[in-house]
């Protein structure tokens, strides 16, 4: 029989003051869902967005769906959280007194993305030029502010649920060094500072990679105006990709396709003739973008599409060629009948 005080390795409970979960070996989980919902409401509802031209405010959260938990295994803290959030906002520009309303959505708040990678979608109930200006305040100025609040949620979650989940063991001073799945308690704070102080013209130096250039031509049985709309209208893009698409077809506007797997920014748009955009796939090295140029030439019975994509990572070249053909050109033809003779 193991004897107390003689250091017998079988008497493992001696290593824990309360004789439970020795050395934090077992999996311990705390549900943080209810706390998270309250914290997200606290951080987002009433949040104001100002840019010198106008002001917007988040009025309510209409949906918070998901879950969050804190887990301990072998004295390592692991946090899981996955949320879909939507809400309502209102705003105005200083030169008028009219208030405009709209909605915003955070489709995927999870530990898989850093706070400044979280996508914020903004819509407005009104389609007037003035309403668009108000919406842009909420979208452009509001996105980093909302991301900073999300970073604070993550920081508070880790601080709140680090308490008591890793139990003391028989160590010097009765303390145990613990780690979590972000490596440091200061990471969330750094993320907030990075989001708030990040400059639009800042550049990150990435790794040097070998790239290739794609050039090809495709024929569509439609007018150039119809094909241009298929490439820039959010509803039409969603129709042929089979997933909700974000497409802001204006210079500097953002786009996000296939659940965020493809994203980028429009550089140049000439209606019915030309599109130039920065384009990247999520799996590519951080901050690496290719440049896609699409030119449309309308003929008597068809429209020719010429595409050039510069800067494709060498390893992804063949997949990119197949992707354009299978997931864009063929699907556009099938979805809108642009593969058959129409005129």
From TrEMBL:
Pfam families: Aha1_N, AHSA1
A Gene Ontology molecular function term of the record: ATPase activator activity
SUPFAM superfamilies named in the record: Activator of Hsp90 ATPase, Aha1, Bet v1-like
Any one of the GO BP annotations: protein folding
Domain Activator of Hsp90 ATPase AHSA1-like N-terminal, chain residue ranges per copy: 29-163
InterPro entries: Aha1, AHSA1-like_N, ASHA1/2-like_C, START-like_dom_sf
UniProt-recorded name of the protein: Activator of Hsp90 ATPase AHSA1-like N-terminal domain-containing protein
Species whose genome carries this gene: Patella caerulea (Rayed Mediterranean limpet)
Biological classification of the source: Eukaryota, Metazoa, Spiralia, Lophotrochozoa, Mollusca
